[in-house]
Amino acid sequence: MRSPSQPDLALLAFAREAKNNAYAPYSDFRVGAAVYASGEIFQGVNVENAAYGSSLCAERGALMAAVAAGCTQIDAVAVVGDSESPTVPCGACRQALAEFNPSMRVIIGGRRDEVLVFGLDELLPEAFVRGYLDQDD
Ligand code: THU
């Protein structure tokens, strides 16, 4: 774990702001995310669905927005959820993020002031990345 830098806290503020737009009528657990990608910031929120499995996490929403804009050099992701302690990204989001940078900074917050900073490689060691697909011959 690392200590938050000023840019980390700035990115976290974008995630916290995004959380206001979370659509979470089923879980009532709101999450906002922000990724810093190719020098730009993209926000995402969790978007739930009456068909529960069609819901999407905030982190993947922000990631998809960055990639759709052509910004794939991702240095950091920030996440703020409704939990008391900082909200960690789920396993599926860790894997989705690792595709673009397995060691990006992950800054997380919750309802209190506590902020934690990890490397994605600490949260998802030995990620399955594209290099494995080249080892099939
Ligand atoms: N959720 C996220 O958006 N990100 C996470 O890292 C954890 C969980 C969402 C999914 C669902 O809409 C709600 O939080 C409760 O699981």
Q: Which helices and strands occur, and which strands form pairs?
A:
Elements: H1 6-19, E1 31-37, E2 40-45, H2 58-68, E3 74-81, H3 91-98, E4 105-109, E5 115-119, H4 120-123
Parallel strand pairs: 3-4
Antiparallel strand pairs: 1-2, 1-3, 4-5
The structure holds tetrahydrodeoxyuridine.
Report on the structure:
With 137 residues, the protein is an alpha+beta fold. 27% of the residues lie in helices and 23% in strands. The protein has helices at residues 6-19, 58-68, 91-98, 120-123, and strands spanning 31-37, 40-45, 74-81, 105-109, 115-119. A hairpin with a 5-residue loop joins strand 4 (105-109) and strand 5. The chain is globular and about 50 Å long. The mean pLDDT is 97. Tetrahydrodeoxyuridine binds at residues 24, 27, 29, 31, 46, 48, 55, 57-59, 79, 87, 89-90, 93.
Report the end-to-end length measured between terminal Cα atoms: 38 Å
Spatial strand arrangement across the major sheet? 2-1-3-4-5
Helical fraction: 25-40%
CATH superfamily descriptor:
Cytidine Deaminase, domain 2
Ligand names:
tetrahydrodeoxyuridine
